[in-house]
Amino acid sequence: MPELPEVENVVRSLAPRIVGRGIIEARFLWPRAAQGEPDGMAELLSGRIIRGVRRLGKHILIDLDVGLIDIHLRMTGKLLFGEPGPYARAVLQLDNGTLVFDDVRQFGYLVWRAADPPAGRDALAATADEFIMLVRARRGRIKPLLLNQSVIAGLGNIYVDEALFRAGIHPLAHGLSRKRLERLYQAISAVLSEAIDAGGSSISNYVDAEGRRGSFQRQHRVYGRESEPCLTCKKPIRRIVVSQRGTHYCPRCQRP
DNA sequence: ATTACTACCTGACAGC
DNA sequence: TGCTGTCAGGTAGTAA
User: Fold this and answer.
1) pLDDT of residue A42
2) Based on the structure, what is the number of domains in chain A?
3) Does residue A254 sit within a domain?
4) Is A256 domain-assigned?
5) Does residue A172 share a domain with residue A107?
6) What 3 state SS string does A54-90 have?
7) What residue ranges of chain A have pLDDT lower than 70?
8) What integer pLDDT is reported at residue A256 of this predicted model?
9) Footprint of strand C on the protein (CB under 7 A)
10) CA nearest A27: which of A93, A96, A95, A74?
11) A157-167 and A178-197 are packed helices; what angle lies between their axes, rounded to 10 degrees?
12) End-to-end CA distance of chain A, in Å?
């Protein structure tokens, strides 16, 4: 579920409670959350000191005195303080409390790594020139390209649809001009920073590490608005499938 | 390089 | 109340 703005809010809510703390013990309640190495991971994590926490694309990276923890929430992962519930997959006992990795669908993971995971250029960190170069080096349709984390990291289904709408670009467009890519870059930067400021989008169950929901879902212009009137031209928003993902766009405002 | 399809999972919701 | 099918903020693997 979480994309860049949600992960950013998780990181910000995590920082004041975990940076500088020690990890007393790590327990994996679901071995696959440790990518099949629960004992080894628990061993590597216990006794470590947390030096910092940051975001890379959709990854949460917790820097330790030795290596780091790489957490990916995938669709339903959450990090929460407090007692583990029925969907707890891993528990970090810190010297000041308990951090629980919760994940209904069990797609996410929490693993120790010696160094950062591979990732494309972070969508918020990229400059306009970098963004344009990266996109122009590829041939395919714009939506699948923006979803490809090894090119630009952080965008997911909601924010791609929202950014393409704001830029007036059809999700299947390709070979875009420099001018249209500049407009797309501005749209991406704007939608991501507005969403971060709104605490992210909580459509069903996203919450940050303090359990707070976001409110950006109220500012979605196309995502989840199939058949509703376009906020610009009143034409009904259309839903198609692109890359096996529900894709929302305005057939009048977004031309190929 | 790009696309298409399957798989990993559970839960919410619509329609019968 | 079921039951069935569809959908979901993601990504890996495999094949064409």
Assistant:
1) 97
2) 2
3) no
4) no
5) no
6) EEECCEEEEEECCCEEEEECCCCEEEEECCCCCCEEE
7) none
8) 77
9) A 1-3, 6, 57-58, 72, 74-75, 105, 107, 147, 149, 156-158, 200-206, 244-246
10) A93
11) 130
12) 28
For A234, the 3-state DSSP assignment is coil
> Contacts of strand B, CB cut-off 7 Å?
A 32, 75, 104-107, 138-141, 144-145, 174, 204, 243-244
The C-alpha atoms of residue A216 and residue A224 are separated, in whole angstroms, by 12
- In which residue are the tokens 């579920």 written? A1
Six-digit token string for A202: 């909580």
Domain that holds residue A104: 4-113
Q: What is the pLDDT of residues A155-204, one digit of tens each?
A: 999 999 999 999 999 999 999 999 999 999 999 999 999 999 999 999 98
Q: Do both A22 and A109 map to the same domain?
A: yes
**Nearest protein residue to nucleotide C12, judged by CA and C1' positions:** A107
Determine the residue type at A181: L
d(Cα A177, Cα A218) in Å, to the nearest integer?
31
Considering the domain architecture, whether residues A78 and A132 belong to the same structural domain is answered as no
Contact by Cβ (8 Å): A220, A165 = no
Residue A209 sits in a domain whose CATH number is 1.10.8.50
User: What is the structure's pLDDT at A229?
Assistant: 96
Tell me what pLDDT residue A204 has: 87
